Amino acid sequence: MTFFVRISGSLPTMQKVFFRNAVALVIAVITLFANGGDFHIDKKNRVDILMRCLFGTSGVVANFYAIDRLDLSDANMLNKLSPFFAIIMSIPILKEKPNRTDVIATIIAFVGALFIIRPTGASMRVIPALSGLYGGFGAGMAYVFVRKLGKKGERTPIIVMCFSLFSCLVSAPFLLFNYQHMETWQLICLIMAGVSAAVGQFGITSAYKFAPAKDISVFDYTQVIFAALWGILFLGEIPEWMSIIGYVIIIGVAVFRWHKARTKTD
Fold first, then answer.
1. Backbone angles phi, psi at 119, to 5 degrees
2. Considering Cα of 178, then 67, then 206, then 153, what sign does the dihedral take?
3. What are the pLDDT digits (tens) for 100-150?
4. What's the Rg (C-alpha) of the chain?
5. Contact between residue 237 and residue 72 where contact means Cβ atoms under 8 Å apart
6. Position 209 confidence tier, pLDDT thresholds 50, 70, 90
7. Are the C-beta atoms of residues 250 and 113 closer than 8 Å to each other?
8. Cα dist. 156→30, 147, 202 in Å?
9. 36: helix, strand or coil
């Protein structure tokens, strides 16, 4: 997804957001029709769905802004801080108290993020990096509300549809005032970004259906490896050594948390 967003060129961020989510919206609506066409949202879930939409949409916008201005691997790694933000925000929202391992892992992960952000005063890099960091925060908050909705029994297609529709409605006005003409190849790139994101979501959802989270959650971090690989092969992006240190730290603590969770449960 991030690769197709990048190669689509210098289109406005909100234009990219609209087309990426429009594809997901179509898929979610088709899924709901295939399952009986019930679009009802329980009244008790509406505020949580709105919060999921707000944080999810703002996180996607921030992530896309970072993707266009940072190396693919850097932008992806900052977005992958979302599980650690989810740990923090689960305390006030879900009343879930993290254990000592989670606390230590979160602190170390943010140290790793500093190696990627590298706040040296060069605002041209720091601003996109901070945007990427917020993208991780927005995604983490969205995951918290998805978990909360899951506990209330809300259906996955409804959550996906509401998020995609909300994102399209938010980004559509920007298209009216700041639409940039797209070549056919650019439109194809944005459609492929949406398809890639949807396929990834179906893949991870299927994975969680057939295996416990403790066994598979760490594999989500392979996204960073693939992003770095596409960046090297097609965009000539070689990650800086400080970024690589940050990757090792963040992925390392993610693997450590995964191992501890498996050991504790097994």
1. -75, 80
2. negative
3. 877 888 888 888 887 877 665 555 578 898 999 999 999 889 888 888 888
4. 18
5. yes
6. low
7. yes
8. 13, 11, 11
9. coil
Say which residue the tokens 């429009």 belong to: 22
**What burial class does residue 176 get, using C-beta atoms within 10 Å of its C-beta: 0-12 exposed, 13-18 middle, 19+ buried?**
exposed
Of 208, 106, 108, the residue nearest 156 (C-alpha): 208
Residue 95: what residue type?
A: K
Core vs surface per residue 73-100: b (16+ CB within 10 A) or e? bbbbbbbbbbbbbbbbbbeebeeeeeee
101/50 Cα distance (integer angstroms): 31
Give which of 111, 62, 65 is closest to 84, Cα–Cα. Answer: 111
Q: Is the dihedral of CA 134, 128, 18, 1 positive or negative?
A: negative
More confident residue, 263 or 142: 142
Q: Which residue has the tokens 């990834």?
A: 200
- Number of alpha helices (DSSP H) and beta strands (DSSP E) in the chain: 12, 0
Q: To which residue do tokens 């679009």 refer?
A: 39
CA–CA separation, 180 vs 54, rounded Å? 25
What does pTM read for this prediction? 0.79
- The proportion of the chain whose per-residue pLDDT surpasses 70, expressed as a percent, equals 89
Q: How many other CB atoms are there within 10 angstroms of residue 151's CB atom?
A: 10
Structure token digits, residue 103: 């606390």
100-109 contacts at long range (C-beta below 8 A, 24 or more positions apart): 101/256, 101/257, 101/260, 102/257, 105/253, 105/254, 105/256, 105/257, 108/249, 108/253, 109/81, 109/84, 109/249, 109/250, 109/253, 109/254
What are the pLDDT digits (tens) for 56-108? Answer: 999 999 999 998 888 887 888 788 788 788 888 888 988 878 778 778 888 88
